[in-house]
Amino acid sequence: VWRYVKERRMVWPLTWAVIIGTLPGVLIGAWLRLEYLPDTKDFKFFAGLVLLYIGVKLFSDTVKTKKQKAIAQKSESSEQKTEFIISDTRFSIKQVEFRFGGEQFSFSVPGVFSLCLIVGIIGGIYGIGGGAIIAPFFVAFFHLPVYAVAGAALMGTFVTSIAGVIIYQVLAPIYPDMSVAPDWYLGILFGIGGFCGMYLGARCQKYVPAHIIKLILCFSVLFVAGKYIIDFIK
After folding, report:
1. Most buried residue, 167, 174, 178, 204, by most Cβ within 10 Å?
2. Rg of the chain's alpha carbons, rounded to an integer?
3. Domain carrying residue 43
4. Cut 0.85: pTM above it
């Protein structure tokens, strides 16, 4: 996150929309999980179908005709010559606009907020940060550049993950018959691995073509979707 801030690749209005939208969702999701979804098998199947749709849409958007590929490659080459910073940010209660890589982008604030609330609920149910879920939505449906959404997604994951841990720790005494409290040792291992991976990814991201990152994101989403659906069938 610090590297994205330092290199001026953080879209702050998007970041705040992610944080404000997902935080109440995490609380709602945690409550739904403990009260109504102690067995998340059925919900996993639904989540798998949603992720499958996102993965297919990402793939179809990435794999284009030869003419579209030529245009994309030309755009990428011009991006590489342009400094990878966020500039000319303008925002209101309805819409945010910013410039990145020589292009102008915009997104609907209510739309992003609503999406983040839903993702926060899903993240609260599973006890995860929503960054991994929300980044594909930003790329596939809001058509935001993959280089620009990563910082906001990581910051949102960081904040909501801390909130999720606190919420589950507080709720643990209320549900003594269920395994609710966080596994701190496993969490520390995840944190160490994630920290190293995120730092390396943030450092290398701007040197990797956008369509390659989209394909990696696409196959990662499809892998998780396939696992969820197969686990449900079994």
Report:
1. 167
2. 18
3. 2-233
4. no
Supply 216's token pair: 């990696």
**Residue 105: beta bridge partners?**
98
Crossing angle between the packed helical segments 131-140 and 146-171, to the nearest 10 degrees: 150
The torsion angles phi and psi of 44, rounded to 5 degrees, stand at -60, -40
For the residues of 79-101, what is the DSSP string, one character each? HHHS---EEEEEE-SSEEEEEET
**95-129, pLDDT tens digit by residue?**
999 888 778 889 999 999 999 998 888 878 776 65
Two tokens, residue 62 = 């990435």
Cβ-count burial of 124 within 10 angstroms (0-12 exposed, 13-18 middle, 19+ buried)? buried
Question: Strand runs (DSSP E) across the chain, as ranges?
Answer: 86-91, 95-100, 103-108
Burial of 108 (0-12, 13-18, 19+ CB in 10 A): middle
Number of domains in the chain: 1
The encoded tokens of residue 55 equal 């993965």
